[in-house]
Each structure stands twice: as C-alpha cells, then as structure tokens.
TrEMBL record, chain A:
Positions bound to heme b: H152, R156, R359, Y382, Y413, H416, C418
Iron among keywords: yes
GO MF assignments: heme binding; iron ion binding; monooxygenase activity; oxidoreductase activity, acting on paired donors, with incorporation or reduction of molecular oxygen
Keywords recorded for this protein, A-Z: Heme, Iron, Metal-binding, Monooxygenase, Oxidoreductase
Cofactor(s) listed: heme
UniProt protein name: Cytochrome P450
TrEMBL record, chain B:
Source taxon at top rank: Bacteria
A GO molecular function held by the record: 2 iron, 2 sulfur cluster binding
Name this polypeptide is given: 2Fe-2S iron-sulfur cluster binding domain-containing protein
Stored Gene3D superfamilies: 3.10.20.30
UniProt xrefs under PANTHER family: 2FE-2S FERREDOXIN-TYPE DOMAIN-CONTAINING PROTEIN (PTHR23426:SF67), FERREDOXIN/ADRENODOXIN (PTHR23426)
Alphabetical list of InterPro entries matching this protein: 2Fe-2S_ferredoxin-like_sf, 2Fe-2S_ferredoxin-type, Adrenodoxin-like, Beta-grasp_dom_sf
Region (Disordered): 60-79
UniProt keywords, alphabetically: 2Fe-2S, Iron, Iron-sulfur, Metal-binding
Keyword Metal-binding: yes
Domain 2Fe-2S ferredoxin-type: 2-105
Biological processes annotated in GO: P450-containing electron transport chain
Keyword Translocase: no
Length: 470, 106
C-alpha cells in the first residue's frame, strides 16, 4: 500500500508529465513551489522541517540502548561515530530507534547483515528514497537508485555507459592532464584549504565533462549537489530553506532543458552524438523522451551529480587525512608506488564517503533476532560495516596494503552497486600518481572541519602545507 | 587437482590449478590472475568476477541462478555463456576448462 504522501507525489508526477509538453520545466517547478507553500499554509506541513542545532553528543556508554540515535547529523563531526556504531555492532546489531527527528528507523550495522539487506531487493525496497529522511515536499524526484527492478534495470542500463570502463579509457588522458594542472597551480609557500582547491575543483571538472555542461558554469553543478544532499529534512544537513531548493531545481531544469534541446538540434543537423550523459540518454529508446518526464529527468541528473560529487571529493580529502593520521603508510607508499590501486580501495573503505543507504521492508523480516515489520525504514550503515571487526582485522587502522581492502562496502552490493566505481577509482589513482610525482609531503596543519550530515561523511575545510620533491 | 585456463581480453593466457570444491573466482584471485576482482568475496553481489565460458564447457558449469542472472544483466559485455566465477564451483569434470575474461569488470 503506498502511503498517502507517496500517492500525492505520484499524482503530482503524472500531472507534471502531462503538462510538460506545453509548460517549460522550470515554470512547472516554480509552480510547485507556490502550490506546496499554499498547501503548507492550508493543511500544515507533512512533517515539520527539522532544525539541527549542534550540542555536545553524550558518551554512548552513558545511554540506554533504546536511546542511541545514530541519525544525529553531528555524530561524524564530533568524532563519536566509531564508539556509537561499535556499541550497536556488539550489543544491538539490528537496532530500532523509535523517535528520531526523521521518524522511527532500524539500523543494520554488521557487515554480513548489511550485505544480506543490500542483496535482498525482493525483501527490501529502495523506493521511494534512499536517504533517511524525506526530501522537501513536492521535490520527490525520481531516480533509479531509488527504484526497484525491473524499472531500475532499464534506467540504469541506459545511462551506465557514461561511466563504463570503455568510456573511461578515453578519459584517462584528460583526467591526468587536469589533475596535473590543478596540482601545479597549488601554493607551496603557505598553507591552503585542499577542499576547494583540489577536491571540489577536480570533481567539478569531471562532472562538467560527463554532462558536457558549460565548463565556465561548472561551479553550479557542485552547488546544486551540495544543497540537494544537504537538505535538513533529508540528511540533517545545513540547508533548511525549502524555497531555495525549489529555486535550485528550477535553475537546474532550465539549464538541463537548454542543454537537452541544444543537443537534440545538433543531432538533427547531422552532428555525431558525443559520449556525454545527455547524448547517451537521447540514443536509448527507453530514455529518448525523458525530458517529457521532468521529475525523472531532474532525478536522474541529480543522481549523477550527487553520485559523482560528494563521494569522490571526500575520498580525495579523506586520503590526505588518513595519511596524516597514519604517516608510516605514506612512507610505505613512497617506497612502493605500485600499492596505489590497493590504497585507493583502502581510502574508500576508511573514509566511506556516504554513510548509508536506506530501504523499506516489503514484508516482515527476521534479522539478528529482531522482527522488522513491513513498511519499516531500514538503514544499512556502510560506515559501520567497513569498520566491523568481524570482517576486517584492525578495522580502524588505515593500511594501504590491506589484503581485503577491495571487499569494502562503500559502493554497496547487489543491483544498486555504485555505477561510477571504476571512474572513482581511476580519479583517485591518477590523483595519487600525480601527487607522488610532485610532493614529498602533504601535512595537514589544522584539525579538519567536517560537514553536518548523517549521510555525507565529508570535509569542508582541510588546511594543508605542501613540501615539493627535492 | 585440475587446471583452468583463463584468457584475458588481449589473449594473454594464464593457467590456474584447483582442488574440486573451490570456485572459479577463488582460484583466479589466489593465483593473482589479472582481470578478476572478486570485490564481494564470493557473495554474487558485485559482478566483478565475470567470465565467459567456452561453449563446449558451458553445460558442465550448470545454469546461473536468479541472483547471478540479475548481476550479469548489468554488464554490457554479457555473452550467452557468461557466468560469475564465484558461482561456478569446480568439479573434476571441469579439469581442462577454458574461460575468457571480459575487457572490463563492472
């Protein structure tokens, strides 16, 4: 049975699709903004937008099990997440929190249990959202990461070519020259913030290429992504202004509609289609009219942008943090650069840039001695599975030649496994190859600042000082 | 004991020995054969141990189950004799088998 808000979202999507031929997409979204605001004034909000104010998080050992709430968006920033998840893994590996700001939810925290949930798409649905909370009302966009088979399979296969290894081979040279350019432009005489200078810059350029988005406007992609993934109601992030999110969505719709129409016209004029995302969508019979289904169109573009933004960006920063916490590993790396591919997997395990994916039980399921009821929200905490001592020896240690580093769960498992995994590995491998060519040391000179979120495990500020190779 | 030959996309051949009961993925990883990742460790959940069995050996490897079918359907290099190496448990009957590796794992 669909829930009431879901039904409303469905009706809204159908309405938007039906009118999309005559009303520009950005106008439709602006229209939704006013409709939602009117609805809120008349009926009150579906769930009040939570507001998160940071307070010190108590030591987990002072809490009763039932009071442990790992949805707190400051858990990562305050460095408490390890102790919280360890206690859940040891004492309540399938744990129910009945009144979080995002509503009740189950946490699954052991590697094996997470793998089971992730594989069992017949028992656990990825619909309608994969984040713990709800997106702003009216902005329930449709993306294949939050669809079940068979609809998921059709949509995924139409876009995965853009990040498929075959396409990547073509991109390797471009990625390397850009990485080199960015590293060569860094100051070597004073500390600077690595996050905007390198991590954001390289991922922004990559996204612009994958989407064939106007290069000089690429910062927009990063800003949209940050705000979508950082909605307070969805992930406990810092963005609580729903109107601004509608404006973003409208802005995105305008930019991408223009890009779509432009490519359509060029193709009609006989130009060879490129290997960018929109060209691929237009080449596939299932998606060639995607622009007439605006919530899906926006959804799948958002997915690609968010999927390629926070993830790789924070692994680019996280690798430096890891090397500074475990300096002997950097020495090991300099002595044996052939460890880079394995080190890349270890960085992705250690950082786990996205903490979890959410599912909804499609029926009652027994797991870890608990009964998850049909309709319950279930959160698979990859960040905890990657530190499960039942799976990884010394899981909190960063070990670049860890034998089973590739077994990490940061990409998820099963049909929703990360489509961009090879691109992410390629970007990180090239970054570290180019770093070793240039720098003898990269020292983190201040405590890094971490973002507010229960979903994104990232850095907003990472001050570093470079020592060039002599 | 038996042997399986793995042929990479560029035609490089590698031979791995096996004891009945191991999986094709396991012997490939243990023998460090390039082109087989086995990221999920044999859970049929990542699709990175894709092999294409030669026609004459395919029937000896059994048939893919539903989970395997689902993962295989996600790879663009899927062929009619594709299998996930972790789901092919080797028997003495498979001594001498040849499998091809795709150009890329997912």
């Amino acid at each position: 049975m669909p829930t009431l808000p879901r039904t409303f979202d469905d009706i809204q999507s159908r309405l938007i699709n039906a009118t999309s031929r005559v009303v520009p997409m950005q106008r439709q979204i602006q229209g939704l903004k006013f409709l939602m605001s009117a609805k809120r004034k008349t009926f009150g909000p579906r769930r009040p937008m939570p507001e998160f104010v940071e307070t010190p998080i108590p030591d987990v050992n002072t809490l009763a099990l039932e009071d442990i709430d790992v949805s707190n968006p400051f858990l990562y920033r305050q460095g408490q997440w390890r102790a919280y998840f360890k206690r859940l893994r040891d004492e309540a590996p399938v744990h129910y929190q009945k009144n979080s700001p995002f509503g009740p939810f189950w946490s699954v925290t052991r590697f094996e249990d997470i793998l089971f949930v992730d594989k069992s798409h017949d028992l656990f649905s990825a619909e309608p959202q994969i984040i713990l909370g709800d997106p702003p009302e009216g902005l329930s966009v449709e993306m294949f990461i939050a669809m079940d088979p068979p609809k998921h399979d059709v949509q995924r296969s139409s876009v995965q070519g853009v990040v498929a290894p075959k396409n990547l081979k073509e991109m390797e040279g471009l990625i390397r020259s850009r990485t080199g350019d960015v590293l060569d432009s860094l100051p070597t005489d004073k500390p600077f913030n690595w996050v905007p200078a390198v991590s954001k810059e390289l991922t922004g350029r990559m996204l612009a290429t994958l989407l064939d988005f106007p290069y000089e406007e690429r910062h927009k992609l990063v800003e949209w992504s940050d705000r979508m993934a950082g909605a307070a109601s969805a992930t406990g992030g810092e963005f609580a202004d729903e109107n601004a999110m509608f404006d973003d969505a409208a802005d995105m719709a305008r930019s991408f509609s223009r890009l779509w129409r432009d490519k359509e016209a060029r193709r009609a004029a006989g130009e060879e289609p490129g290997f960018d995302l929109i060209s691929l969508l237009q080449s596939n019979k299932e998606t060639k009219d995607l622009i007439n289904r605006p919530m899906e169109f926006i959804g799948n573009l958002t997915l690609l942008i968010v999927g390629g933004n926070d993830t790789t960006r924070n692994s680019m920063s996280g690798g430096l943090v890891a090397m500074n916490e475990f300096p002997r590993e950097f020495e090991k790396l300099k002595a044996k650069p052939e460890l880079i591919p394995n080190m890349v997997s270890e960085i992705i395990r250690w950082q786990t840039p996205l903490a979890y994916m959410r599912r909804i039980a499609k029926q009652d399921v027994e797991l870890g001695g608990q009964t998850i009821k049909k309709g319950d929200r279930v959160v698979m905490w990859y960040a905890s599975g990657n530190r499960d001592e039942r799976k990884f020896d010394n899981p909190d240690q960063f070990i670049i030649d860890r034998k089973d580093a590739r077994n990490h769960m940061s990409f998820g498992y099963g049909v929703h496994r990360c489509m961009g995994n090879r691109l992410a590995e390629l970007q990180l491998r090239i970054l570290w190859e180019e770093i070793l060519k240039r720098f003898d040391n990269i020292e983190v000179v201040e405590e890094p600042e971490r973002v507010q979120s229960n979903f994104v495990r990232g850095y907003s500020r990472l001050m570093v000082k470079l020592t060039p190779n002599s | 004991m038996g042997k399986v030959t793995f042929i990479e996309h560029d035609q490089t051949e590698h031979v791995a020995e096996f004891k009945a009961g191991s999986s094709v993925m396991q012997i490939a990883v243990d023998s460090a054969i390039p082109g087989i990742d086995g990221d999920c460790g044999g859970e049929c959940a990542c699709g990175t141990c894709h092999v294409i069995v030669t026609n004459e050996w395919f029937s000896k490897t059994g048939t893919p189950g539903n989970e395997e079918e689902q993962m295989l359907s996600m790879t663009p290099e899927r062929a009619s004799t594709s299998r996930l190496g972790c789901q092919v448990v080797l028997t003495d009957e498979m001594d001498g088998m040849t499998v091809h590796l795709p150009e890329f794992q997912m």
